[in-house]
Specification:
It contains 12 helices and 10 strands. The chain is of the alpha/beta class. Helix content is 42%, strand content 17%.
């Protein structure tokens, strides 16, 4: 096991080799997002449920160190960049610029296990090339320090019509290009077809984690994405808003752990934690 593999292992369950990661880094882009108004309170609750890892912004990473002092604390992934969606705090729109906000030295100084960066696609040409430079520069820096890099390609820009943003073929292209830029880990959407997704995961050759994306319609839908993607070869899930915006957050996390780590049936997980109805 090399140094990068050792660091990646810190976010994986020792028995299943898989991971339930609940990120709370949304505030860096979205501001005071609903459900995450008190990030340390939510983080404490998530740690109590036994999550395997979380994504943290530099600021929350610094003020939450005490929560990770125990030997069985979850792994920590640093969100190292900001693709700014508006010049108005809390606003949204096209990416107006993309910058690194924390380097690998910061990640090492605060004992993070992995660094994560976004790779938005479909943006205006100069912003698109900015994102390519951000990812490639960070990939080279991570290699110098043996720090694993998680890359999250996202289809945000106006050049990609909304009806095309779940297109499996575009997701495949975006994932492959992120790999080519130096990703050690990929965080991508589940394409919805288990057989095709299994082929994609096998071809990518690096650990693949599934992002939660926009709010799903039901708890069953959240659990189904987790189950199908893990059965297709994903190493785990990275679900944020679909977890901490749910009033049954703790039970939902426990159900996700049951599915990801124990290969439970969706109905059994829902019954076990009173998530029906």
């Amino acid at each position: 096991m090399n140094v990068k593999e050792l660091r990646i292992s810190r976010i994986l369950n020792s028995k299943s080799g898989k991971s339930v990661i609940i990120p709370i880094d949304h505030g860096i882009v979205m501001g005071n997002v609903e459900g995450l108004e008190d990030p340390l309170k939510i983080l404490k609750q998530l740690i109590d449920t036994g999550i395997d890892g979380t994504l943290l912004s530099p600021g929350i990473g610094k003020i939450s160190l005490d929560l990770f002092s125990s030997k069985d604390a979850p792994g920590r992934i640093l969100t190292a960049d900001i693709p700014l969606l508006s010049t108005v705090p809390g606003g949204s729109g096209e990416v107006v610029g993309h910058e690194i906000i924390a380097d690998v030295e910061f990640a090492l100084r605060y004992n993070f296990d992995i660094v994560k960066v976004l790779l938005p696609w479909g943006e205006r040409e100069h912003v698109q090339m900015e994102s390519v430079r951000v990812v490639s520069d960070l990939a080279n820096e991570c290699d110098r320090w043996n720090m694993p890099l998680m890359v999250e390609p996202v289809l945000w820009g106006e050049a990609i019509p909304k009806e095309k943003r779940n297109d499996p073929k575009i997701i495949e292209h975006a994932s492959r290009m992120a790999l080519e830029m130096g990703a050690d880990i990929l965080k991508i959407p589940y394409t919805g077809n288990k057989s095709e997704f299994r082929d994609l995961v096998n071809n990518l050759k690096v650990p693949v984690f599934i992002l939660g994306g926009p709010k799903m319609d039901s708890i069953e839908g959240v659990l189904r994405v987790a189950k199908e993607s893990v059965e297709a070869g994903a190493k785990g899930i990275v679900f944020g808003r679909n977890v901490w915006q749910n009033p049954k957050m703790k039970d939902l996390v426990r159900a996700l752990k049951m599915i990801v780590h124990d290969n439970a049936e969706i109905s059994n997980a829902m019954n076990n934690f009173n998530l029906l109805g």
